[in-house]
Design brief:
The chain is mostly helical and 70 residues long. The chain has one domain. It contains 3 helices and no strands. The longest helix is centred in the middle third of the chain and has 33 residues.
């Protein structure tokens, strides 16, 4: 749920006297979503680290040319 949706939902429910409360609700939702994304990215970073270091001599163009030329 995005910020504007949260603000609308909270206001419709009649629990908000002013925008400050809606903005706080919005910030809390965004922080939760952000934390969730960070956790997923961290998991991906750990998996990438397990692959090892990059080969500085690797040439992606040569690799793909060989792959497609057969």
């Amino acid at each position: 749920m995005w910020c504007s949706e949260v603000a609308e939902c909270v206001e419709r429910a009649g629990t908000v006297a002013g925008r400050d409360t809606a903005n706080r609700e919005c910030a809390e939702v965004e922080q939760t979503e952000f934390t969730s994304v960070l956790a997923r990215v961290e998991h991906i970073r750990e998996r990438v680290d397990k692959l090892g270091t990059n080969d500085p001599d690797f040439d992606i163009k040569t690799f793909t040319d060989e792959m497609w030329d057969g």
